[in-house]
C-alpha cells in the first residue's frame, strides 16, 4: 500500500488516530497473514521466516515449481553478473552515467531479434587511469555458474524467449519498414498510392480482408494538398498497424470529444491491443493524450457520476446529488474558492487535476485530423457526405459514419449500388485545398445549425446563420463567378451553396421567434437583393417566396407589398409547381392583386370519398388522438393500424380492387426505374462527371439535369414504349428485375411488391399505355418538381385491368399543393384518383 506523505501541521497536538495507536499495532500482529503455499496462518513476526523455508508438496496440482534456488543463489541472481576488471578494455571510455533501461514487466525484453543470454562476465568497468596496481580477475565462481545454468534451463526463461520470438516475428515486417519511415517527414501523392497498393498486396498475401476505409481510389495532385496532409496520408497507410487504423476510424466517426481509453477498450473488443494502438496514434500525432486536457469544462463533460462523487468527496462537497448537480457544484466551487494568493486559478487547476487522476488515461482525435479526413471523404463521395442529407433525414446526424457503413457494406457484399465499382472519377471542381476546406467547414456549420434548431436553441442557431451571411459577403467576386460557372449538380457541393442554405435556415429561426419583419428582410436579400446567390439553392427558392408572402400577408398585414412581391415571384423560373400553386392560391384571395391577373396553373378539384373506421375511444397517453383498429378474424382480436391501412382495407373489401399497397409513389418510381434503368443509371464516359464513388445510389444530377443530359436516349425509349408489344416490355421488366433486385438505388423499391416480380408485372398490365407514358414523361422532364407528392395508396385489379390512386386523409388533415398536382395529373390522364377522408368511429374495445 502506497504511503501518503502528510503535511506538517503547526498548532496544538491532536490525539493520535486509532489506526496509528499501539493497540492497532497489536491487533495487526494478532491477525497475522496466511501463507499462499501451505494455506496456514502465521503471525507477522514468524511469517517472513516461514516463507523462507516453506515448500510445496510434490503432489500439489495447483502450483508448479518453475525453478528452485538457495538463499545464496537468489542473492547472486539479484546482484546480477560479476564485474570483471581487465586490461584489454582499460583504454575504452565508458560513460560515467550509463543509460538505464526501464523494466515495465516480467515479460518485457529487448527488441532485438535474438536477445543475448545474460553472461557472467559481459560487463567491463575500467579501473582508475592513474593506478599502477595490477588487479587480477577473480576466478569464476562455481555458484554463479550453477545459477546461470539453472536460469537457462528454467521454463520461465524458455517461455520468455519463446513469447519474445513470437512477438518479434509478428511485428518484424512492420518494424523494419518503420525504421526507414521514422525519419521521413515528406511524401508525395504517388508514394501514398504506392503505399495503398503495397498495403493491399500484403493483406492479400496474409489472407486477411483489406480494411474498407483504406481504399480511397484517386487523389489530387501534390500541389493541391499541404505537405503535412500528404505525410499524414502516408503514415496512416504505411506506419499504423491494423489496430491503430481501426481505432482512428472509430474515433473519427464519433463526436470529437475526449474518451476514456478503458471504456474504448471495453467497447471495441475487436481491437486486440487498444492501448498499443493508442500509443501508435500518439506517436504519429493523430490523437492527443490527456496532457492537453486543460479546461475544467471538458473534464467535467466526460466525467461519470462515480468520478464526480470521488472528486466532490475530496473537496468536501456534498456528493449525494445527480450528475448535473454535481457538475454545477464542482464548477461553482472551482470558480468561487480563492487560493492563498487571492486568485481562483489554482483551485480550478486542483479540481481539474483531481478529475484527470480519477478519469485515468483519456484520448481525443486531433481537430486537424478530423478536418483532413472529412476533406478526403468529401472528395471520395460528395453525394453521401452532403449536409443536406441531415435536413432530409434528421436521424442521419453523421454523414461520414453513414458513408463508412456503406463502404463496409460494399466491401463485405451485403449491399450493391448502381455506381461503377471501382469508380475511376473523383470530384474535380475544387480548384485548391482552401476551397475544399471552406465547403467542409460550411457543412459542419449547417449541421450544427440544424441541430441547434431541433434543440430549440434559436439564438445560437441565428448566430451561426449570421456567420454564414458574413462569409457570403466577404467571399471574393472571382470565386463567386467560378461557382456560378459550375453545373448545378456540382455547384451544390460548394461553400456558397451551403452558406446560402444556412441563410434560409435563419428565416425559419426568425419566424419561430415571431420576428417576421426581420425574416422578410432576410428573404428579400436571398431572393432579390443579393444577385450573387441567385443561382444557389434552386430547390428552396420557391419555399422562400411562399414563406415571405405568408409573412407579409398574414403576420405583417402588408397586403399591397404582398401583391407586389407576388408579381415578382411569378417571373422567377426556379419556382417549383407546388410553390407556384400556393402563390397562385394566395393571389386569388388577395384583393390588392391587379384585375387582369391570370393564374399560371389550371388544375381541377379531385374526387372525394368519405368512409368511417373504428378507433380506440380512450387515450393511451402518447398524444395521438385517433388510433384506428381492424378486426383480425383469424386471431379474433382487434389490431391497431394506420389510417392508410384502414382505407386500403376498406377499398379491398368494398370496391373492385383486389390488390393494394401503401407506397406513396414507390410503385410508380419502381416501374420508371425498371423501364429506364440503363438511361437513368448510365455509367459510360459521357456521364462520368455524375459518378464520384462506388456507394452512390443515384447520379448526382438526378434532381437537376436528368432529362437535359439524356434527352436523346429518353426520347428513343418513349418511342419504343409507345409501339412495343406488351409481352416484350414485360420480358424487359423481368430481365432488369432479375439483374438488379439486390441493388440499392434511388428509384426501385423492391420491398413494396410482396409477390416479387409478378406483382410488378401485374400492375404494369393494368396501367393504360398512354397514361403510363405521360406519368413517366413528367417524372423524366421535371424530376425535381414531381419526385414527391404521389398519392398514398396504389390499388389495382389484374383481372379487370383497372388501377387507382388514393390520397388518404385522417380527421383534420388537408391536401398539400404537390398532392393536388398529382391527383389532377392522374385524373387528366384517365386514372381514377380520389381523396379518401377517414372519419373516426369510436369503439369501446382496446387492443
TrEMBL record:
GO MF term (any one): phosphodiesterase I activity
Biased composition (Basic and acidic residues): 142-161
EC number: 3.1.4.1
Domain of life of the native organism: Eukaryota
InterPro entries: Fan1-like, FAN1-like_euk, FAN1-like_TPR, tRNA_endonuc-like_dom_sf, VRR_NUC
Residue ranges occupied by any VRR-NUC domain in the UniProt entry: 724-840
Family (UniProt): Belongs to the FAN1 family.
Name under which the protein is recorded: Fanconi-associated nuclease
Amino acid at each position: 500500500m502506497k504511503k501518503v506523505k502528510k503535511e506538517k501541521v503547526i498548532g496544538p497536538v491532536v490525539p493520535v488516530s486509532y489506526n496509528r495507536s499501539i493497540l492497532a499495532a497489536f491487533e495487526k500482529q494478532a491477525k497475522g497473514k496466511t501463507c499462499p503455499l501451505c494455506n496456514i496462518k502465521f503471525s507477522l513476526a514468524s511469517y517472513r521466516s516461514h516463507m523462507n523455508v516453506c515448500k510445496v508438496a510434490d503432489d500439489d496440482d495447483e502450483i508448479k515449481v518453475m525453478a528452485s534456488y538457495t538463499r545464496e543463489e537468489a542473492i547472486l541472481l539479484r546482484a546480477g553478473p560479476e564485474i570483471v576488471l581487465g586490461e584489454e578494455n582499460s583504454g575504452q571510455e565508458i560513460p560515467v552515467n550509463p543509460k538505464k533501461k526501464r523494466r515495465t514487466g516480467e515479460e518485457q525484453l529487448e527488441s532485438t531479434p535474438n536477445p543475448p543470454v545474460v553472461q557472467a562476465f559481459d560487463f567491463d568497468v575500467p579501473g582508475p587511469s592513474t593506478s599502477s596496481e595490477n588487479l587480477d580477475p577473480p576466478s569464476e565462481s562455481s555458484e554463479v555458474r550453477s545459477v546461470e545454468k539453472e536460469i537457462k534451463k528454467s521454463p520461465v526463461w524458455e517461455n520468455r524467449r519463446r513469447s519474445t520470438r513470437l512477438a518479434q516475428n509478428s511485428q518484424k515486417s512492420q518494424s523494419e519498414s518503420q525504421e526507414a519511415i521514422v525519419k521521413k517527414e515528406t511524401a508525395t501523392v504517388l508514394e501514398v498510392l504506392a503505399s495503398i497498393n503495397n498495403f493491399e498486396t500484403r493483406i492479400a498475401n496474409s489472407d486477411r480482408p483489406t480494411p474498407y476505409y483504406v481504399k480511397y481510389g484517386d487523389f489530387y495532385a501534390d500541389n493541391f494538398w499541404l505537405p503535412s496532409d500528404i505525410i499524414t496520408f502516408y503514415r496512416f497507410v504505411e506506419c499504423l498497424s491494423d489496430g491503430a487504423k481501426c481505432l482512428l476510424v472509430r474515433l473519427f466517426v464519433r463526436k470529437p470529444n475526449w474518451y476514456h481509453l478503458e471504456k474504448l477498450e471495453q467497447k471495441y473488443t475487436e481491437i486486440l491491443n487498444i492501448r498499443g494502438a493508442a500509443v501508435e496514434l500518439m506517436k504519429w500525432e493523430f490523437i492527443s493524450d490527456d496532457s492537453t486536457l486543460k479546461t475544467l469544462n471538458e473534464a467535467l463533460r466526460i466525467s461519470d457520476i462515480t468520478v464526480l462523487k470521488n472528486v466532490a468527496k475530496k473537496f468536501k462537497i456534498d456528493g449525494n446529488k445527480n450528475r448535473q448537480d454535481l457538475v454545477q457544484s464542482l464548477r461553482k466551487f472551482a470558480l468561487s474558492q480563492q487560493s492563498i494568493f487571492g486568485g481562483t486559478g489554482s483551485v480550478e487547476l486542483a479540481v481539474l487535476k483531481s478529475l484527470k487522476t480519477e478519469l485515468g488515461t483519456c484520448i481525443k482525435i486531433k481537430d486537424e485530423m478530423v478536418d483532413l479526413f472529412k476533406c478526403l471523404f468529401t472528395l471520395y463521395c460528395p453525394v453521401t457526405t452532403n449536409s443536406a442529407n441531415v435536413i432530409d433525414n434528421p436521424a442521419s446526424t453523421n454523414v461520414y459514419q453513414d458513408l463508412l457503413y456503406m463502404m463496409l457494406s460494399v466491401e463485405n457484399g451485403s449491399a450493391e449500388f448502381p455506381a461503377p465499382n471501382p469508380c475511376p472519377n473523383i470530384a474535380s471542381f475544387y480548384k485548391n485545398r482552401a476551397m475544399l476546406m471552406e465547403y467542409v467547414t460550411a457543412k459542419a456549420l449547417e449541421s450544427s445549425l440544424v441541430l441547434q434548431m431541433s434543440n430549440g436553441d434559436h439564438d445560437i442557431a441565428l448566430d451561426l446563420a449570421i456567420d454564414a451571411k458574413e462569409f457570403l459577403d466577404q467571399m471574393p467576386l472571382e470565386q463567386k463567378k467560378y461557382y456560378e460557372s459550375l453545373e448545378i449538380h456540382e455547384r451544390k457541393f460548394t461553400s456558397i451553396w451551403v452558406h446560402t442554405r444556412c441563410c434560409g435556415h435563419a428565416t425559419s429561426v426568425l419566424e419561430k421567434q415571431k420576428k417576421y419583419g426581420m425574416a422578410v428582410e432576410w428573404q428579400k436579400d436571398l431572393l432579390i437583393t443579393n444577385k450573387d446567390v441567385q443561382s444557389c439553392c434552386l430547390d428552396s427558392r420557391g419555399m422562400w417566396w411562399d414563406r415571405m408572402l405568408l409573412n407579409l400577408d398574414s403576420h405583417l398585414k402588408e397586403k399591397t407589398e404582398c401583391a407586389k412581391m407576388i408579381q415578382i415571384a411569378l417571373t422567377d423560373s426556379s419556382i417549383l409547381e407546388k410553390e407556384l400553386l400556393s402563390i397562385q392560391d394566395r393571389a386569388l384571395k388577395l384583393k390588392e392583386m391587379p384585375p387582369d391577373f391570370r393564374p399560371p396553373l389550371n388544375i381541377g378539384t379531385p374526387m372525394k370519398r368519405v368512409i368511417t373506421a373504428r378507433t380506440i375511444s380512450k387515450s393511451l397517453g402518447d398524444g395521438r388522438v385517433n388510433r384506428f383498429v381492424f378486426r383480425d378474424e383469424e386471431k379474433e382480436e382487434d389490431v391497431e393500424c394506420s389510417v392508410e391501412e384502414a382505407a386500403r382495407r376498406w377499398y379491398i373489401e368494398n370496391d373492385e380492387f383486389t390488390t393494394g399497397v401503401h407506397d406513396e409513389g414507390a410503385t410508380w418510381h419502381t416501374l420508371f426505374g425498371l423501364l429506364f434503368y440503363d438511361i437513368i443509371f448510365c455509367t459510360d464516359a459521357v456521364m462520368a462527371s455524375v459518378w464520384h464513388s462506388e456507394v452512390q445510389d443515384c447520379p448526382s444530377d438526378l434532381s437537376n439535369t436528368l432529362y437535359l443530359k439524356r434527352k436523346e436516349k429518353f426520347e428513343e425509349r418513349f418511342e419504343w414504349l409507345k409501339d412495343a408489344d406488351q409481352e416484350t416490355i414485360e420480358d424487359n421488366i423481368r430481365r432488369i428485375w432479375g439483374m438488379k433486385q439486390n441493388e440499392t438505388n434511388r428509384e426501385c423499391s423492391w420491398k413494396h411488391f410482396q409477390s416479387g416480380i409478378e406483382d410488378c408485372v401485374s400492375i404494369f398490365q393494368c396501367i393504360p399505355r398512354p397514361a403510363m407514358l405521360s406519368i413517366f414523361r413528367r417524372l423524366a422532364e421535371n424530376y425535381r418538381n414531381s419526385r414527391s407528392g404521389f398519392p398514398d395508396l396504389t390499388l389495382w385489379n389484374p383481372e379487370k385491368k383497372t388501377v387507382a390512386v388514393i390520397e388518404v386523409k385522417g380527421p383534420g388533415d388537408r391536401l398539400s399543393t404537390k398532392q393536388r398536382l398529382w391527383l389532377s395529373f392522374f385524373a387528366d390522364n384517365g386514372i381514377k384518383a380520389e381523396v379518401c377522408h377517414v372519419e373516426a368511429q369510436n369503439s369501446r374495445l382496446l387492443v
